[in-house]
Amino acid sequence: MHNTVFIFLLTTSVLIFISLAWAGIVSLQEKEKRAASRFFTLALLLPIPFLLVSFFEFPYQMPAGIILLVLTYGSAIVLAAPSGKKRLFTKPVTSTQIDERDTMFSRNELIPGTDAFKAYYKRKPEHKKVDDNFRAKAGLLQPGTSQYNPVAFASADTSFATIEALRDRVNGPVNKQKTETVLEDISQYIKNWSKKLGAINCGITELKSYHIYSVGGRKERRDKPVVNKHKYAIAFTVEMSKEMLSAAPAASVVMESGQQYLASGVIALQVAAFIRNLGYEARAHIDGNYEVVCPLVARDAGLGEIGRMGLLMTPKLGPRVRISVVTTNIPLAMDEPLNDYSVTGFCTLCKKCADACPSQAISFAPQEDINGVKRWQINQEACFTLWCTLGTDCGRCISVCPYAHPDNLLHNIVRTGIKNSSAFRKAALHLDDYFYGRKPVPAPLPEWVNTKQS
Ligand code: SF4
Ligand code: SF4
User: Domain boundaries in the chain?
Assistant: First the structure.
């Protein structure tokens, strides 16, 4: 055996061992037991062929060593090299506005027998039967649901009640004394400050008609046309805890949703109030009081793409975020959308959320043309009906998504590969299934959430 080949074989076996053992340790830290045990097993097994070829003499030892090295580094190059059709990203262009009254939360607010109830189902009789179905269930955060946990539900309820208490703060008087600002500077300031306040990311876009609901559907805004003449929209994302979501669809998910709706809402309220203080109009859009469709604004503001489950898929946390928005007239520098085809490319292959969805609300089909936009649309009725049975907002789709792994070196290497190479996308999907499971078993409720009730 030639010395160079011997050294290459030995070095490769050590590199494989170290990389896989490191991935195993990271998985242990992430409490991913299945992934950890598989990484450690592979760390022990995969170096064996390299060691055998290095140390055991047999006929054609040298060619065998060279073939092993060529196969190993060849596969690595194929996976790492940028590949795949650079399809032109078709920018979603639509003028269709969503009527907020058709969203499930608006329909859930309708009280049988009231004028609003009768008027809605007169206009949309096709929704009556399916809505009666979710109304027959116990309901979100209610006793009698399958995931009922009085302490956890009370915590979630408190977060939503706090958001409700802030409802009237979304708008307010504008300071008559205007502060002249420099477009780029104030834009960057808002981004930096929002991150200091807890946002993961912040982006700015021009407010378009399709961002805005046509007619309001919640509380006092019901049946009133939405009028928002602001020129800009600022979107903020905050992280949802991986630990709380891993137990999906258990009660920790709705606790985390409430908490992060509140956290993102408070950031929006502060930034909107700050802009009004500078002498410009600004309105915060927070849970239960949106005039805009947050994922569409966030996508156009460059914070992510819309994936198979219809949620914003961010580059570092996938769908594991909550969003709030501020619309305003203060002059701002706009961001470009990511136009990252790799997300929809990966979603086209993956379908893991569709497999894991307990209500079969997520489509397995390719993107459809909906109101002039190629996208996926979930069955919101099926999803919401399940929520009313569980008592939580489920979140299984978010918890199993391969993009939702923690933002760390291990998963960012995978995310970079997915972004750059179609070959890597295919491999990553199989590897994610292998290490984490096609339908990962939900983790137990975090210990501190699982309080005893007498
Ligand atoms: S689970 Fe897969 S298909 Fe579903 S959103 Fe995530 S990446 Fe896309
Ligand atoms: S939240 Fe649950 S029911 Fe709704 S789409 Fe996701 S997995 Fe399906």
Answer: 3-80, 109-399
